[in-house]
Structure prediction request, 511 residues.
Amino acid sequence: MSGTTPGHVWLVGAGPGDPGLVTQAGLRALRDADMVLYDRLAPPELLDACPEDAERIDVGKAPGGAVMTQEQINAALVEHARAGKRVVRLKGGDPFVFGRGGEELEALAEAGIEATVVPGVTSAIGGLAAAGIPVTHRGVAASFAVVTGHEDPTKPAAQVRWAELATATDTLVVLMAVGRLDGIARALIDGGRDPATPAALVVDATTPRQRVVESTLGGISEAAREAGVEPPALLVVGEVVAVRERVEPALRRPLAGWRVLVTRTRRQASTLAEALTAEGAEPLLLPAIEVARRADPDAVRAAIDALSAREYAWVAFTSPNAVDAWLDLVRAAGQDARLFAGTGIAAVGAATARALEARGLSADLVPSRGSGEGVADALLERGVDGARVLVPRAERADPALIDRLRGAGAKVDEVTLYLAAPPAAPPPDVLAAVRAGEIDAVTFTSRSTVRNLATLLDADLDSLRGAVVACIGPQTAEAATEAGLPPHVVAEEPSVDALVAALRRYAAEGA
Ligand code: SAH
Prediction:
């Protein structure tokens, strides 16, 4: 834990929706938090940045159904800070743009509690930007106002001065407007704004579900009804809406809005999920495999002893999981990288080599063909007759590697480390999306992800027939075909980046 003060509250703006739009200061506060009170509009992914044991409190703020009242929230902030906690109050957008951050800060000041405000990217500006609507634009708009649409504009006591605002600024951005579009448009038109002024609604801005409905001030309410617009949405009125047509082509992404199934283990899913998110897609994690570590302690001890005694010519790793599991066992036995001195290290492919690098070991041999047979062939080329080879790996792994090495006269010790099997309880929301046929693409990064997904989904595998199937390599593709999901896309090389690039190319061509 870093040296941030306990008994302190951070009012953190989480940004408009994309978790990547939080600030560094916001992330730092989350990483140090003992407790987080978060709103509905704060991206849930950000909570993953908190320490595992940090308390997470949903304070709701769903329209009409607050979980905690503002007074309760203020009181909770004071109480937990007084108890010496580092408290983060995480809010969508910027804490002071209709976020009631000012009231919370007042309560903290009154109670004599130190606080820090971490500004955030407000949806009012950033959300429009993501939709290709610049809030100001040279020659088009030199001023903007951000207004709440929460109040009924027809009430005489309304705080928002619609009549003055109607013509006071070039761009008008209205938050919380979805339920009152009719009244707002009427009030602006009555105030003198031309009903033909371009207007748009940006729904779920900066998320993979982002949608834009364009119309005119006079027509926006009807257009919203037709499109079934639901909060959260931004209403923007002004000539800048017309700029969108010219700038938006540069923002288009072939995978925007695609819901893509990620089937690898939760631990390995993040790089693929991040690469997909960067392309505007929505990754849905359905880990088809869970890794349950279980190794025979005697076999492990014997292999470690033989390594110490420099009896192995080679140790061959066939997956990043095997690297991590084996090195954890080595560590637990009180050994370190020196144990491998004098032994050649082979890795099946780039990902496994990287996993070794991360543990301070360089692979001596990475075959150009990334498969168990590829490793065997590369070792055979070096000559393994009479040599001892250690293969620490998963239970029920493909026998080809070991068969081939033994066939060439090697003495192979296989040590099984873990069982990769379908998880007992797959996430129900993702399963529901699969069953509803809402998946646009499914990614497979190994044969076992295919096999295990087939076991996991059973008859529901049929629901994936309409989806684009993307495989990381030819062997995975073969397995997918056997499972009845012939691939549309195969990566040019076995890497996450190549997989996403291939999927992107496919989507671009299909568009
Ligand atoms: N403090 C927030 C605003 C809170 S008021 C900010 O600075 O963005 C809540 C309103 O913000 C919603 O009703 C909606 O109008 C708008 N909003 C917030 N996030 C949004 C998003 N991702 N897409 C569209 N509108 C959003």
